[in-house]
Amino acid sequence: MRSGNLIGSGYVVARRVATVSADVTGRVREVLVQEGMFVQKGQVLATLDDVLARSDLDLAKARLASAEAAVVANQADLVDAEKTLERTRALTGRQFSSEADLIKADARAASLRAQLVKSKADVNAARATVAYDAEMVDRYQVRAPFTGVVTEKNAQPGEIISPMSSGGFTRTGVCTLVDMDSLEFEVEVNEANIARVRPGQKVEATLDAYPDWKVPASVLAIIPTASREKATIKVRVAIAAKDPRILPNMAAKVTFLNEGKGG
Questions:
Q1: What pLDDT, on a 0 to 100 scale, did the predictor assign at position 207?
Q2: Span 41-65, mean pLDDT?
Q3: How many Å is the Cα radius of gyration of the chain?
C-alpha cells in the first residue's frame, strides 16, 4: 500500500438484487433454475399450477365466440328487417299495406339495431375478459425481472409460494437473482477521515480472496449518514471493469489514492 493513502475495509455488494416471486399465490409445478445459472430478463424461472386459471380462460374464450356469433346473427336479422321495412314503406305509400304493418316493421328494425349495439358491447366485454384471464394465466409463470445470476434457489416443486408472507409452509420467493453488472464495493470510512474522500477519487481495491490483484475503481458516492455505534460513514465505490472473480459479499480492502499518486 502507498504511504499516506487512506485505507478502508468493506465488501462487494450488488445494488440490484431481488427475491423473485410470482404475482399470485399457487403451488409450484416446476423450477427451471439452479444456483449459479445465468438467466436473461423475461426468462421463465418456474411455473405454478394454472389448471383453474386456464379453465377460466377457456370459458372466457367460449363466451367471446358466443358473443361474436350473436353479432353475426343480429346483423343478418337487421339486414332482413330493414329490407322488410323498406318494402312495407313502399307498399304503404301505394296503399297496399296498412299503417300498422309499417309501424310494426319499423319497430322490429329499431329493436334489432338496439340488439346489435348490445351484442357488440358484449363482444368488447368478452374480449376484455379474455385478455384479463390470459394475463392471469401468464402470471403463473415466474419470470426473471432482469438479467443476472441465480444465487439461491428457495422453492421446490409441490411447495406453495405467495407474493406476501403468510407464515407456515408458504414461501415468498422462488430464487434470489443478482445483477452482476451492478456489483460495487461498499466501504466503511472513519468519520474523522471522511474529508479525505471525494466523489470520482481513484481507488485501488484488494479482495481477500485475491490479495495480489489490484482492482481499479473510483468513488461513486458518499452515503450522507454516519453510524453512531461505529463512528463510520459508508462510501460506494464503482468497479472500473467487471470481472467474474468478483462475487457478492467478498471482503475487500480499499486504498483511496491521493491526488497525483497512481490511479
A1: 95
A2: 96
A3: 34
| Residues shown for the chain | 263
pLDDT of amino acid 203: 94
- 3 state SS of 116: helix
DSSP string for 61-98: HHHHHHHHHHHHHHHHHHHHHHHHHHHHHHHHHTTSS-
pTM of the model: 0.72
Across 50-64, 70-84, 103-117, 164-178, least confident range = 164-178
State the cell numbers at 227.
453510524
Q: Which residues contact 143 (CB under 8 A, 6 or more apart)?
A: 42, 43, 44, 45
**SS3 letters for 133-199?**
HHHHHHCCEEECCCCEEEEEECCCCCCEECCCCCCCCEECCCEEEECHHHEEEEEEEEHHHHHHCCC
| Rounded-to-integer distance, Cα 13 and Cα 8, Å | 15
How far is it, in rounded angstroms, from Cα 79 to Cα 39?
57
Question: Which of helix, strand or coil describes residue 113?
Answer: helix
Q: Is the pLDDT of residue 58 over 60?
A: yes
Could you tell me which residues come within 8 angstroms of residue 155 by beta carbon, excluding any fewer than 6 positions away? 28, 31, 46, 161, 171, 173, 174, 175
Hey, what amino acid is at 87?
R
Task: State residue 20's pLDDT score.
Answer: 93
**pLDDT at 5 (0 to 100):** 84
